[in-house]
Each structure stands twice: as C-alpha cells, then as structure tokens.
Amino acid sequence: MGGEGVMVKEALSFDYSRYDFKDPVNYEVLLEPGLSERTVRAISEYKREPEWMTRIRLRALDIFRRKPLPTWGGDLSHLDFDSIRYYARPSDVKANSWDQVPEYIKRTFDRLGIPEAERRFLAGVGAQYESEVVYHRIREDLEKRGVVFVDTDTAVQKYPDIVKRYFGTVIPPEDNKFAALNTAVWSGGSFIYVPRGVHVDLPLQAYFRINAANIGQFERTLIIAEPYSKVHYIEGCTAPIYSSQSLHSAVVEIIAMEGAHVRYTTLQNWSKDVYNLVTKRAVAHRGAFVEWVDANVGSRLTMKYPSVYMIGPGARAEILSVAFAGRGQHQDTGAKAVHLAPNTTSRITAKSVSKDSGRTTYRGLVHVAKGARNVKSSVRCDALLLDDESRTDTYPYMEINESDATITHEATVGKIGDEQLFYLMSRGLTETEALNMVVMGFFEPFAKSIPLEYAVEFNRLIELEMSGAVG
After folding, report:
1. In the predicted structure, residue 118 carries a pLDDT above the cut 50
2. What is the mean pLDDT of residues 67-91?
3. Residue 381 lies in a domain
C-alpha cells in the first residue's frame, strides 16, 4: 500500500498548511492561565465595559463554579480549566479597512482567504483572532438601510439598549456549565441587527482563528431579525495543531421575529487538540423560519446541538448537521426542535462518517408541548462507517404531548461494501478515489446547501481527512 499512499498525496491538491501554521505574536494583553473573579474583572476592564455587563459576567462565573460538568456525551475528564488562558489580545486596533490590520494578523487571514471572501461580494466580513475581533466591515448600502453588523464588544458600547434587551434571553448562564463559562469570559463574536422588512440578500461572514496553544476562544454571537426581515450568516473556524489542549466554547443566540427568515451556516475545521463545546439556540416567532446548516470536521471532542424553539404559530425549523470523525475524535452532535405553538413544523437531517476508530454520535430532541396542535416533524439520521474499529451511536429523544402530532424518525447505519468499491475501481478509480467518491456523495446534501466557495473547501477538507483511510 506504500506506493498508493504516495499517489494519494500527489493527487490531493489541498494542503492543510493553509490552516496548520502558527504565527509568532507579541500580545498586547495575555492573561495568565486560570479562571477567577480577578480574570473576569480584568477582561471587563480591558474592554472598558459598562458596570451592567461586569455584573452579568460575575454572576455567570458564580453559576459556572456551581454547575457540574455534563456526565453524558463526550469524555471531558481531561479538560483542565486552570491551564487555559481566557483572554489574549493581539492588537488594540479594530479595523474597518483591511489596510489597517497589523501585518502579522493580515498574513494569517490572507492565507485563510478573508480579503478574497470580501472581494467575492459578500455583504459583510468579520475576522476574529484569539479573543478579539480585528477586522469588521459591512457594505455601505446595507448600513444605510439600518443593518448593523459589528463585533459584539462594539455592540455593547454603541447599541447597549438592544444588547441589554436580548443578551442571555435565549441562552441564560443557568442553561449549562459552558454557557455560564462563555457568559463570564466572552469576547468578540458577531452582533447582527436587521430592521423590519429588510432582506440581506448576500451572506454576512465571520472567521474565527485560534493561533496559540492553551487558548480559549469564547465568542458571543447575537442575531436579531425584526419582522419579515431576512439574513444569512456564515462562520468558519480553524486552529493549528498543538500537542496541548485548547477550548472553544461559543454561545449563539438568534431571535427571529414574526415572518423573519434567518439562516446560520457553520464550517468548523478545528485541529484535533481543540475541545469544541458550543451552545447554539434560536427562538422563532409567528411564521418565522430558522435554518441551521452545521458542519464539524476536526476537534478532539465536539458537543453541539443547534436548537430552534418555535414559540409562535406557523414557525418552521430546518437543521442540517454533518460530522466527520477520524482517529482520536468524537463528534457528539445533533439538534433540538422544540414545538411550543400550533401548526409548527421542523425537519432534522444528520449525516456522519467515522473512520480509523473515530466516533460519531447523534443526540437529538423533538419536543411537542401540550397545546401545540397540528405539529409536523421529521428526523433522519444516516451514519457511514469506514472500518470495523469506528463507532456511531444514535440517541433520539421524542417528547410528544399532543395526539395529533405527525412525527417520523428514520435512522440508517451502513458500511461501504466491497461491491461498490469493486465497481468504481473497475471504472479506473483507485481504492482511495472510490472511497472519496462514496463519502462525497453521502455528504452531497450539505455541500449543495452552502455557497460554492465553501462547498469546494468542505470537499477538500473531507479529501484530506480521507487520505489516510486506506492502508
């Protein structure tokens, strides 16, 4: 198989060095590892935050200390909160022109394609490096129509009334230990406000980068879509490979008002030493439509379950989640659809691939509350195992409190058959190319649902992960 390995490497044009590089950085602020009240107060002081936000942080720290670690899901026993640095500021410049970004950060994001993305006519672009957003820009025509797209730190200063009204209302710090942690030490993230009736027809984009070892990144994203508005937000995440752990623990809150349409797309490509522990939730009012499109490639452990709470009649939710787990990885992902109003509908589609003893888990919830009549929900989970050592599990929870609800659940687990490989190889493909083709076809629903440049990147990431699947 050695010769075939050389051929595979030559055939793959995608190079992970685009992501796996570390920049030497002289940090303006780099807090010592460990979490304490002093740490939380220091973060707030460095940001020159109002007292009300400092109080929120300190209260959340108290909740974090009292909350136990989850005993379900992935193995968190090796996660050491005292070894993590909770704030790192590489630059005190927050630029709205790419020319203003410091050169060493600019080189990083040039390699990741951030300026290119802006030139592709995206509606807005933001870039976060470690704890701070270093670059943010939105198209002028959208700004004139009242659309706000800034980092969340800026929103606290410029739009305090909106932030105070919605911050922590969808995901309070009491929700879980990592939501409390994020609320205590959050930094950066995106704040989006779309006025009534305004349609943002092109995506808003943010890119999050962890550069140093033992760094925690805790962005906080808040999206408010006023009635009958529309917005699509895309985020990408990367980190280089280290031998020690890093922690990514974000919180995303979405409020979709009556008739609004919000789509949130994530392509996460964390390195295999990152714990990716994220809480993402939306509330959908009357007639609102919320879509989560979520891809997880990389990370040591991911625990993420995008949720939609349909609180208004006629609200809709669609969640598409895909995951790829290789050696030493556990992707514990899924979705939650909570029907709290009548005539609401949801659709959950989850697809996963495991190889080289990797593990994937689907963990999902469909809840129909008493009084939520005429609910329709469908769940489909498909898992693909590429060898005998890999593992996949499905944990669907159905809580149905109305007799007229229509609920369907389908789950399949399969392995690539010798007949499939033989047929494709008889057409001139190598074994690796044949495996790649089957896996790409399996993930096609996700690739078709995202913009072309992201689909190309996703396919190349999967090719890279697959390159060691044979031999």
Report:
1. no
2. 87
3. yes
Output the pTM of the full model: 0.84
Average pLDDT for residues 93-106, to the nearest whole number?
53
Share of the chain above pLDDT 70, in %: 75
- Structural domain of residue 78, as residue ranges? 19-430
- For the chain, give the secondary structure using H, E and C: CHHHHHHHHHHCCCCHHHCCCCCCCCCCEECCCCCCHHHHHHHHHHCCCCHHHHHHHHHHHHHHHHCCCCCCCCCCCCCCHHHCECCEECCCCCECCHHHCCHHHHHHHHHHCHHHHHHCCCCEEEEEECCEEEEEEECHHHHHCCCEEEEHHHHHHHCHHHHHHHCCCCCCHHHCHHHHHHHHHCCCCEEEEECCCCECCCCEEEEEECCCCCEEECCEEEEEECCCCEEEEEEEEECCCCCCCEEECCEEEEEECCCCEEEEEEEEEECCCEEEECEEEEEECCCCEEEEEEEEEECCEEEECCEEEECCCCCEEEEEEEEEECCCCEEEEEEEEEECCCCCEEEEEEEEEECCCCEEEEEEEEEECCCCCCCEEEEEEEEEECCCCCEEEEEEEEEECCCCCEEEEEEEEEECCHHHHHHHHHCCCCHHHHHHHHHHHHCHHHHCCCCHHHHHHHHHHHHHHHCCCCC
In a domain, 458, yes or no: no
The reply to whether 415 falls in a domain is yes
Number of domain units in the chain:
1
Question: Is residue 451 situated within a structural domain?
Answer: no
